[in-house]
Amino acid sequence: MALGDWRLTLKVGVRPVRVWTWSEFQALPQTEQVVDIHCVTTWSKFDTRWRGVTLDTLLQAAGLEAPTPWVLAHSQDGYSTNVPLADLTQGRAMIATHYDDRPLAPEHGGPARLLVPHLYFWKSAKWVNALQFNERDEAGFWELRGYHMRGDPFKEERYG
Ligand SMILES: Nc1nc2c(c(=O)[nH]1)N[C@H]1C(S)=C(S)[C@@H](COP(=O)(O)O)O[C@H]1N2
Ligand SMILES: [Mo]
């Protein structure tokens, strides 16, 4: 997509509380993370290098502190996935824009994807355009189809 059209919106329930354009987003403090990632179909990939903006930074920039216990991430392609807020804070997740020091490739979610490396990779929504903070845990695309609401690979939380 054209970067001029890119937006990231934070919502509390249905209410939009903050929107960043691409250039505004680029001005936020960036973080680099080298992490292992785990697909639900059993592959893992080790020492992957990502750069982006942590959820802590986003929440701070929006003046939101732990608004609700649950988050539903939404993507350009209609995909969604739910994650407990506790799995997104304290440096555990970012909106990633770079992989291996290069802009994130479109097939891997570029220009920006959610990255939650300690959960199964279906939680890492590609082409993310909104994070919705909810009082209740609302199932996303795969979770509605039987995947686990949290998805911890070390507990093999594949199915709900
Ligand atoms: N928007 C969106 N994000 C998505 C998906 C999708 O279909 N749409 N698939 C998920 C699944 S099931 C996996 S395994 C990973 C794949 O990421 P990759 O293509 O970078 O390997 O993206 C996740 N994020
Ligand atoms: Mo997947």
From TrEMBL:
Transmembrane segments: none annotated. InterPro entries: OxRdtase_Mopterin-bd_dom, OxRdtase_Mopterin-bd_sf. Residues 5-142 form the Oxidoreductase molybdopterin-binding domain. It holds the Pfam family Oxidored_molyb. PANTHER family: OXIDOREDUCTASE MOLYBDOPTERIN-BINDING DOMAIN-CONTAINING PROTEIN, PROTEIN-METHIONINE-SULFOXIDE REDUCTASE. This is Molybdopterin-binding protein. It comes from Comamonas aquatica DA1877.
